[in-house]
């Protein structure tokens, strides 16, 4: 009876060892795949956060630039409005020469006293 019990216990242990040898690599592979997936998702989350921060930074810069343009336009409009009759075109030219788009035109360089 004791030998029969030992044989049964031995078979159970052998079956467990075989099952561990068969299923362990698959479980380890699954765990490793899940770890890799977690790292990828963490990287994507980080990239998303950095992208969001960059977008907010650009929006802030754009808002500041827009405010500066609005200020320049208001100042130019006020100068044109203050200009005596017949001189409003000169005031408009000075105002437009302050804008980046027209800054390097021949008329603006001439107005600043630079060679055309």
Keywords for this structure?
116 residues, mainly alpha
Report on the architecture of this protein:
The protein has 116 residues and is mainly α. It has a domain of 60 residues. 84% of the residues lie in helices and 0% in strands. The chain contains three helices and no strands. The protein is rod-shaped. The termini are far apart.
pLDDT average, as an integer?
85
What is the H/E order?
Answer: HHH
Structural class: mainly alpha
Number-wise, the strands total 0
What is Rg? 39 Å
The end-to-end distance, rounded to whole angstroms, is 115 Å
Q: What's the number of helices?
A: 3
Topology:
Elements lengths: L1 H81 L5 H10 L8 H6 L5
Helix pairs in contact: 1-2
Report a brief summary of the structure.
About 85% of the residues lie in helices and about 0% in strands. It is mainly α. The chain is rod-shaped and about 125 Å long.
């Amino acid at each position: 009876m004791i030998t029969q019990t030992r044989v049964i216990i031995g078979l159970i242990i052998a079956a467990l060892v075989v099952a561990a040898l068969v299923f362990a690599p698959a479980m380890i592979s699954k765990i490793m795949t899940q770890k890799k997936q977690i790292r990828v998702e963490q990287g994507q989350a980080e990239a998303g956060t950095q992208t969001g921060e960059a977008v907010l930074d650009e929006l802030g810069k754009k808002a500041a630039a827009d405010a500066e343009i609005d200020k320049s336009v208001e100042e130019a409009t006020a100068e044109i409005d203050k200009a005596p009759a017949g001189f409003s075109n000169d005031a408009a030219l000075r105002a437009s020469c302050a804008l980046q788009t027209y800054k390097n035109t021949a008329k603006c360089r001439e107005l600043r006293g630079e060679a055309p």
